[in-house]
Amino acid sequence: MKPPLNPYLVLAVAVVLPGMGQVLNRQPVRGLIFVCFAILLGGFTLKTAAPDVSFVGKMAGGLFVWAMAVLDAYKTARIRHAVWSHANAPR
Fold this sequence. Notes:
By secondary structure, this protein is mainly alpha-helical. Helices cover 75% and strands 0% of the residues.
C-alpha cells in the first residue's frame, strides 16, 4: 500500500490552490465541489454586497468556502496519514 502524502504538503497546496488538497487526497469530485461553491458564493457576495464594502467583504462567501476546503483537506490528510502509520507500524 502506497503511503499517503505528508499532511503539511497537502495543507500548503490547498492554501495556494483551492480544491487541490482534495485532489491530492484522492477526492477529486469533492475538490471540484469546493471550487464550484467558492466561485458561486464569491460571485453571489460580490453582486449582493453594498458598494462601500471592501474587496475582502465582497468575496467573503468564496473565501469562507476556500478556508473550509483548506481545513477539510488538511484534516483528511492527517487522518489518512495516522491510519496508514498505525497499520504499518512494526509489531
